[in-house]
Amino acid sequence: MPRAKIPRKSTHIDxxxxxxxxxxxxxFFILATxxxxxxxxxxxxxxxxSSKIAPDKNVVLVTIDKDAKVYFSVSDANSAEKKxxxxxxxxxxxxxxxxxxxxxxxxxxxxxxxxxxxxxKSYLDKTPEEVKSLKVPGIPVKDSTDNELIEWVxxxxxxxxxxxxxxxxxxxxxxxxPSFQGVIIAFKKNDQLKFQMITNPVGAPVxxxxxxxxxxxxxxxxx
Length: 223
Known about the structure:
With 223 residues, the chain is α/β, with parallel strands linked by helices. It has a domain at 61-201. 41% of the residues lie in helices and 10% in strands. It is built from eight helices and six strands; from the N terminus they run αβββαααααβαββα. Strand 4 (166-171), helix 7 and strand 5 (196-197) form a beta-alpha-beta unit. Helix 2 packs across helix 6. The termini are far apart.
């Protein structure tokens, strides 16, 4: 006697629970993600085939914008060193900075110093919002007899004494050489002969020896 055939039924999977989990994960990542804040100082760096990553700790950064204005800043994590730097500058130049003004340099995460010492007190007296819309002349470096960056670098070297200071230069591709020369003079005056340039990484030219070397090293690492 033939057996009765059981009719086949299509498989049905309830995706409601999976959709709920997906939306929960999406909501978590949106709320937990920290987006990169806009740069306080916009600089278009020159292209380079170097793939070395710039350090992000113990950084003393000298920035040169497209108008050849020079700025000085210290990484946000080094609040103790920033305090020592502003104290040293205040003492050596007899600026008479108040505790609140010095705190604006220490606590402000986007504290770029881009003014001469004669304007530093009024500059640090402003709020971060006021500073964003302020047009600054930059730190004087072009005159060899009045290179104020020398004092800032000297204060930084003293503040980072006993630990490694990463000295970086971030120059705009359109900036002029005299400002860069003034920065180098400030480094030499403080025996800082090693520094790193921040550039925009690009691929090696097609057919160049560097491309062949990178391709060979990449194939070896993949094996």
